[in-house]
Amino acid sequence: MTLTEPSADVTAYPGLTIVVADDVVEIRNLIEHWLTASGCEVLCAASGREVTELVRTHAVGLVITDVLMPDGDGLEVITSLRRSAPTTKVLAISGGGSHLRATDCLAFAKGLGAHGVLMKPFNREQFLAAVNKVAPFPTEGSDGDAPR
């Protein structure tokens, strides 16, 4: 994956605060780069516990969480957000683990209330398309009243 700026067809989200949670620092950094280039404020976390603290102390519109992480996984994050911040959108990402396939992880995440899912590995276009589907702001040309 290369660090490139978003093209003109990518929806910009100025002012949107997004939490990115992944225990792999390189993935967090890459996603952070892609999102900040789209005008988002990005807060990073390496565990589910860190996500919970960030959502408690910041106005967060979207959480992008890996499903399998130490110290509170993405499934716990989704469950917690449904109770404590039900309007916060969730995009779950996963490449699976030693005992679970990515498709199973993402199915569990969707079943618990994730608004979208994306399998690793993904490229910039696939990632931004997934964000565009779940982001809490309307796209250009929308009347702004339709739920996303």
Helix/strand class? alpha/beta
| Strand line-up of the largest beta sheet | 2-1-3-4-5
Strand content: 15-25%
Largest sheet: 5 strands, parallel
What is the strand tally? 5
- Name given to the CATH architecture: 3-Layer(aba) Sandwich
Elements, N to C (H/E): EHEHEHEHEH
N→C terminal distance: 29 Å
What is the CATH topology assignment?
Answer: Rossmann fold
Q: Helicity range of the residues? A: 25-40%
Instruction: Report the mean per-residue pLDDT as an integer.
Output: 86
The helix count comes to: 5
Shape: globular
Number of domains: 1
The CATH class name reads Alpha Beta
Low-pLDDT segments? 1-10, 138-148
What is Rg?
Answer: 14 Å
Please specify the SSE layout and strand pairing.
Blueprint: E1 17-21, H1 25-36, E2 41-45, H2 48-57, E3 62-66, H3 74-84, E4 89-94, H4 102-112, E5 116-119, H5 124-134
Parallel strand pairs: 1-2, 1-3, 3-4, 4-5
Care to give the gist of this entry?
With 148 residues, the protein is of the alpha/beta class. The protein contains 5 helices and 5 strands; from the N terminus they run βαβαβαβαβα.
Task: Explain what the structure shows.
The structure is a single chain. The chain has 148 residues and is α/β, with parallel strands linked by helices. It has a single domain (17-134), classed as Response regulator (Rossmann fold), CATH 3.40.50. Helices cover 37% and strands 17% of the residues. It is built from five helices and five strands. Strands 2-1-3-4-5 form a five-stranded parallel sheet, with helices on both faces. The longest helix has 12 residues, at 25-36. The model is unreliable at 1-10 and 138-148 (pLDDT under 50).
